[in-house]
Amino acid sequence: MISKSRFSSVCESVFQVVVPVQPPFCNLPTPPGVRRRALGLASQLRVSPPSGQSRGCMPRDDFSKALREAVAKRAGHLCSRPDCRAQTVGPHSDPTKATTVGIAAHLTAAAPGGPRYDVSLTRAERRGIENALWLCATHAREVDADFARFTVQELRAWKAEAEREAGLDLGHGSAPRAARLSADLAKASQRDQRISRLKRLYPVIGAQGLALEISTFNDLSQTEKAKLFDTVRALWKGGRPPKQNPFRTPA
Ligand SMILES: [Zn+2]
Question: Which terminus in the chain has less CB density within 10 A, N or C?
Answer without folding.
Answer: C
